[in-house]
Each structure stands twice: as structure tokens, then as C-alpha cells.
Amino acid sequence: MEILMKTILSGLALAVGLTAPALGADAPLRAPAPFGAAASAYQWSGLYAGISGGYGRGSAHQGMTTSAYQGLGLYYGDVNESLPANGGLIGATVGYNRQFDRFVLGLEADFSLTGMKSHGQAPDGDIWVPGDRATQNWSTTLNWLSTLRGRVGFTFDRFLVYATGGLAVGGVTDRTRLDYDDGAGGGFSASDRSSKTHVGWTLGAGVEAAITDRLTAKLEYLHVDLGTQTYRTDLRRILIHADAKVTADIVRAGLNYRF
Q1: Domain 46-258, what fold?
Q2: pLDDT band at 87 (very low <50, low <70, confident <90, very high)
Q3: Residues near 80 by beta carbon (within 8 Å), at least 6 away in sequence
Q4: pTM of the entire predicted model
Q5: pLDDT confidence bin for 64, thresholds 50/70/90
Q6: What are the boundaries of the signal sequence (predicted)?
């Protein structure tokens, strides 16, 4: 009996010794993955360029003083009115981002052509002689807008939420037309225009999303204040000084390509 038990135990030990290498070959031991070895988050650092377009609701405030001379006598007609200046805009963007953990700092410049324009009219009568009439028509157009802004944002992997602000520069054209009727079949019409560059500031916010590793899409809001410039218009015998202040609230979307 004792001999039989020893024989059985020896056989079991031999079987275990033979099968262990096979089991080890089928299920090799693996070292545990290091902590934090998950797929890396989207990286926003680098140079990019793109296009943008949107719509602006603006205001062109005219503080206008009219004086007459050359035999008509002195007259001052004051206009102080704020008119809507709305329209679309389309342009190009270039910028650079630097990411620090989940924070992003950037610098962005853009240039847009715009169709934002205001119209106004100021009729007046009995100016120099009874029955005469003078009508001023004017318009203020924001022809182009350019900004240079800093951006500060926080990332949610492939999404970037940011605030932005900086310098705003715009090209503005002020047009004026005067129609004068002396009430006795005489009179004249004259028109003129002048263009100036307005310099101001802008402040806004936006969100940007990575569509692919290279392509991103953004939606952005900007408030723009281009300050005030004085326009002098000489319409034959009428001299007009107009102080034009231009502001705008702009919403635009864009596509950027990261290099």
C-alpha cells in the first residue's frame, strides 16, 4: 500500500512539472501598465491660419455742425444722432498658441472686409430766406476691420474656451450730400466724401473645437469700439464738420488649419 501511494504522488508531481511550462507559454506574464499611460490629450500649441465670416450690428454716431459762408450769411445747423450700421464681414486669420497643461495662451491677427453702413438725413427750412430749404444726407461705412488680440483659454481635450482682447483698427468712409433750394427756383447740390483710419479696442470671447488633428472650427463674439474721428467736408458754400464715432458687436464663425 505504501509503495502504491508513493507511485501515485510521484506521477502527480511529474504531471504538474510537465504542464506548467505549457500554461506559461499560453498566458505570458505582463508587467503592469505605468500609471497615467492613457492616450494623450489634444495639443493646441502651434501656428495656424484660417478664414472667418459673420455679421455685425454697429452704430455710427454723427455729431455734425454745418456753417454757410460766401454771401449766404452765417448759419449753424447741429446734428447729434446715432444710427445703426449693420452688415456682413469676411476675412482671414493667422495666430499662434502655446499650451501649458490645460491653459492656452495665444496671439491672433485678422483682417476682414465689411459691408457695415449707416444712413442719415437732416432737412431744415427757412435758413437764409423765407421758404428756402436745405437737406443733408450722409452715410458712414466701415470698409475694413483688422484686430490684433491676445487669447487666454482653457481646454477640455478637443475643445477650447477662451477670452480675447486687444487692438482694433478700421477704415471708415464718411459721405455727405447737400441739396439746397432757395424757394425761388434756384439752389444747388453738392456732395463729397473722405476716408480715415479709426483706432480703438476690442474685447470678446469664443469657443473652438478640433474637427481633425489639423482642422479646427470656432464661434466668436467681439465688441469693437473704433473711437471718434472728425471729418471736414466743403460743399461749395457749405462747410460741414462731422465727428463720427463707430462701434460694433460682431458674431463670426471660422475654420483654422494648424501647421
Answers
A1: Porin (2.40.160)
A2: very high
A3: 62, 63, 64
A4: 0.75
A5: low
A6: 1-24
